[in-house]
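Batch manifest line 456
LIGAND: pyridoxal-5'-phosphate
JOB: complex structure
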Amino acid sequence: MSQVPQRNRAEWQQLDSQHHLHPFTDFKDLAKKGSRIITRAEGAYIWDVDGNKILDGMAGLWCVNVGYGRKELADAAYQQLMELPYYNNFFQTSHPPAIELSRQLTELAPGFDQVFFTGSGSEANDTVIRMIWRYWQLKDQPNRRVIISRKNGYHGSTLGGASLGGFEAVHKQMGATVPDITHINQPYWYGEGQDISPEEFGLARANELREAIERIGPDKVAAFIGEPIQGAGGVIIPPSTYWPEIQKICDEYGILLVTDEVICGFGRTGKWFGAEYYGIKPDLMPVAKGITSGYVPLGGVMVSHKVSEVLMGEAGEFYHGFTYSGHPVACSVAMANLKILKEEKLVERIAEDVGPYLQQKLAGLKDHPLVGEVRGLGFFGAIELVKDKASHTRFDSAQGVGTQCRDHCFSNGIVMRAVGDTMIIAPPFILTHAQIDELVEKAWKCLDLTQASVKG
Ligand SMILES: Cc1ncc(COP(=O)(O)O)c(C=O)c1O
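JOB STATUS: finished
ARTIFACT:
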């Protein structure tokens, strides 16, 4: 029986602002506006408390990849809750769901032997930091401490994750960040590189890694971390030259390569992992979100043979872990989720069918007067809103044009996220061609409404 009482919108909004602090939110501002209350979901749609049906172009928060209302996932959770709702993996104990899921995950990622489970993507990235430092201690190179990340990258909201992330405003608000983390520029061609070709720009931005290593001292650098495609930073798709060059530089200096697969992992690019899409071989891969399609929280770090053989050697105890590392219910739901992805060939579908169809349809939005660039790959899309199409001049950020567009979207039956003035989509993998048509038609309409509201 549901534990949630029936209330109307006003009642929920009032209680929400009274008692509930939201993530990444200006609390006062939200209390003034009131939250949108979402009460149920099915397939690719969510419904608000007033009964409005909205096509979810963001798969929740880049996670509900198999869509809402999958009974298989609910059944897996229920059965596991009845059989073994919880047990830890700390003191020489383990349980079948964690063991079997780690086996299945390593089967999906050749070259990866082991998985360290966490409760979220942020915890996975904190684990990455701890593992990198431990790895170099065990390799008798404890001075290799520095982890190089990127500006405008996102790696979570714990102290470690937020320090790895490259959001200046976040670091400023924190006041201090985890030491031995430094940031280089991102491979954002449309925003920062239009004076040279994308290929040249990709190489130039990759070369910043080499410059940083030389500046810091090659014997002090431990690792490089990046999202294969930056998600929260605005769907930044690197030029084709970028990742192969990064791989080359990591190999040349013998530093660890980490691809943060929290968004890219489990199919969004049309391959199981972003690293696979770009043909690179990371040493560690943090994962979360799509591992359970967001139905229950789970994260982890996939550990390559190269790192695991060091951690598994004469290493002594690794002083790290979480109460919910390898939670049995989350692991069971993850396995049911992987089964759906495999049986329904949802990843192949993105590579061969709905991915290309979505990209073809999205590309049409380029003709809208408000749109400077449309870019996409697999089931990722980004639409850059500009004041002047020819010169790519942006709006004054104070105008909040992206937020205006996001509001029009919600009121007109689709979810798109705004990152500044870049509109983002990352829909569930189960979208049909007709739903892709619906998404793009509504997006066009909302661009029209935004244009009218910006002018007006
Ligand atoms: C690439 C990436 N890494 C890490 C995280 C953090 O994951 P979580 O919110 O589960 O802690 C996110 C979340 O959006 C992400 O996009």
